[in-house]
Amino acid sequence: MDCIFCKIASKEIPSEKVYEDNQIVAFNDLDPQAPVHVLIIPKKHIQSADQITDDDKEVIGKIFVVASKIAKELGLENGYRIVNNCGEDSGQTVQHLHFHLMGGRKMHWPAG
Ligand code: AMP
Ligand code: ZN
Fold first, then answer.
1. How far is the CA of 31 from the centre of ligand 1 (A)?
2. What is residue 70's predicted lDDT score, i.e. its pLDDT?
3. CA 15 to CA 55: how far, in whole Å?
């Protein structure tokens, strides 16, 4: 399958990894929108949050545990944002489920 994040998970494409286990990889975003901008993905190809099934419950839960671990390691004690873009209207550009972990600056809401 021609999926850039599957290729990152299988190391076919290099990335700056900040975390890896048997189910999950986290790596720095190529085009960071904050001082810390990490993408956390399941190694399993899931197209978007809309495609999550009962089989994925464990890995999705684990992603949030990993997110808080990474946030601590990267010094985000003042807070951070976890973002998921799902589908065309959200602006999802890579069709492999990913969570943006962003921090190190004040965030605005609802965007930016
Ligand atoms: P989204 O717009 O939510 O689908 O986010 C996709 C993100 O993937 C963007 O923030 C891109 O900068 C990032 N991205 C795309 N290709 C790569 C890559 N090869 N390595 C790291 N980040 C990437
Ligand atoms: Zn994929």
1. 7
2. 98
3. 27
CB of residue 94 inside a 6 A radius of ligand 1: yes
d(CA 70, CA 26): 9
> Can you tell me which residue has the tokens 């904050």?
34
Closest ligand 1 atom to Cα of 4:
19
Does this model's pTM top 0.85? My answer is yes
Q: Which of 37, 45, 96, 98 is catalytic?
A: 98
Contact status, residue 98 vs residue 30, Cβ threshold 8 Å: no
Amino acid 37 reads H
Cα 25 to ligand 2 centre (Å) = 12
Q: What is the pLDDT of residues 34-93, one digit of tens each?
A: 999 999 999 999 999 999 999 999 999 999 999 999 999 999 999 999 999 999 999 999
**Residues facing 99 on adjacent strands:** 40
